Amino acid sequence: MIAAIRSAVMWFEHRLVLRETLWPIIRHPVPRGLRRRVGWMYVFGSTAMTLLMLQIATGIALSMVYVPSAGEAYESLLYLNFDVPLGWMLRAIHNWSATMMLVVVVIHMTQVFLMGAYKYPRELTWMFGVALFLLTIGMAFTGQVLRWDANSYWGLGVGVAMIGRVPYIGPALCDLLMGSPMIGGETLSRFFALHVYILPGLLIGSLAVHLYLVVRQGISEPPAEGEPVDQNTYDEEYEKLIGGGHGDPFFPGPLARDAFFIGATLLLVFGLAAIYGPDGPDLPPDPANVAASPVPDWYFLPLFAVLALSPRALETIIILVAPIVIVIALVLLPLWAGTGERHWRSRPVACMSVIFILLSLLVLGWLGYKEPWSPIMNAWTKDAVPPDIVKRLTPVELQGATLLQLKTCRNCHSLDGVGGKRGPDLTYVGSRLDRPALVRQIVQGDGNMPAFGKQLTNAEVTALVDFLVSLRPPNRPPPLVPTPSAYASGK
Amino acid sequence: MTDSENVSLADCTTDRRGWFDWVSWLLLGTGSVVLSIPIIGYLFGAAIWRRKDQWVSLGKIADFKENETRLVTIKNPLRGPWDGITGDLAIYVRRDPEKGFEIFSVHCTHLGCPVSWFSEPGLFMCPCHGSVFYEDGGYAAGPAPRGLYKIEHKIEQETLHAHVGHLPTLQDPGTPPNDNQATT
User: Fold this and answer.
1) Structural domains in chain A?
2) What is the pLDDT of residues B43-89, one digit of tens each?
3) Which of chain B's residues have a Cβ under 8 Å away from the Cβ of A408?
4) DSSP state at residue B123
């Protein structure tokens, strides 16, 4: 039996000649420095690749049921979630492995950057890595569209609105993206083709080149302080590290470490999928459901925050120019800093950049999650004026409290921390602003608040201001310091 | 050096085989270019031959009360047979006793999120980044760069018609902004 198997294997080997082609690649030498603990920093690339394979496998499985038709995609996802045995689990694995892949890719890029592994002679490896990162984001966005629920419908609308700002060719680009002048069946088919054929094809092609370069240029040795990369001597020094039996074969040693981390990651994906399940779909993609309150997937939350916090005058420039600048900076990084020190201790600017970027993304992501700039659209009916405030009001002030609710002020303003956060909390507004300032604010508004001058009668303004003036801590008088409006009018 | 490497460009242009080589490459190039025209045209067709908005009836004008703003759902005239619910189109119709009819897109001019109408304060409000618009569609507050997108309309035989179809964007708003909607 064993002889028969050996014979069969040899039959294939005689024709495939893998021992001469694939085997040397699997056993390509890597620096012995990877034996140390720092070797764990080298596991993220192969983990990202494994997650991509998992994405492809689960994606193919899902495509056997998913219907890429605007009229039926939503129902097919519900069918997958609730009727197909383990359909929900496949969707969950697909979703959580996508999340994990993006996280691992970012960690991998950060590690490569901090360890200076993008420097000579691996500049092109980094550039294809950037392409892989951008394609991964593209896969995430197109995957979100395929969910074809209210969030993905309006989320795509946001993408169209951003592209629609491009001067002259914006409208044509929008139609090109949607496949028609509206978001509909042709849009979904287009994104299905992008998500299933075009982007994965580009991903696999870029990955093939990336891997070829990794093997061809060799895995970078762990950086050491005071050993800068010199283009004239590096190749010779690297050859000393791995040539003549000085390096370790990638298989089995370092690959086993990869296998350990990959296995742990896969178990984590399984756990997250089993516990948290698939992502959506939530409400149907109904263009007439204007009550929808779209929120992007987590990886676009920082962008969501940037779009809310940007100055209005700069927004179009930020939307259209910033992505191009960021991509160009990432791609050209190894040409700008392709030699010199590799160790992070010798590169304070690199360390500060990473800390700044990660902190910015975390803060913006958190703000995007909390979205304090978004009105709470049903607060005016949902969040009552607190009883502690109501019980001390005069009839006119009560009328003002009613107006505060009816005029939807609560959608943007809180009382006792309850209500919208877009505007300031009004619980003690009477101790901050005097009567003229309140009148001016209500009647004229400002950049973040509409002017209610035409929406309210004089009596209503009086009642509302009376109520707001009464909003002070017990025994606290109205503000004594003249407000800007009182000062300007010479009072 | 092999014979094939000794063949120079000049040889290719002088003898019969060289002429045939040039013709072969020329034929391959011509065939590729000719074939690529319909393929590229197909892929970029949506942007090259853009479909135009169409007139759609919204109902009898008597159905719209004065001083009222209503969300009206119609079928998008540009929809396809398999568009399902996404083939619907929602617009706000306002009937002002002085100005007559005004029709607005539900898409916020900031980033396209759906604005909601609040009749009590007379405001449109966007749930995404908090842009606010007055009842006449004019800019009121928030990050939006202009007022709501206005939709062209006409009245024929006591019936209100709207010119709709495409998803309005800043560079393709459908109709130019009027004075009170201009960028502030």
Assistant:
1) 30-370 (1.20.810.10), 379-489 (1.10.760.10)
2) 999 999 999 999 999 999 999 999 999 999 999 999 999 999 999 99
3) 118, 120-121, 123, 125
4) E
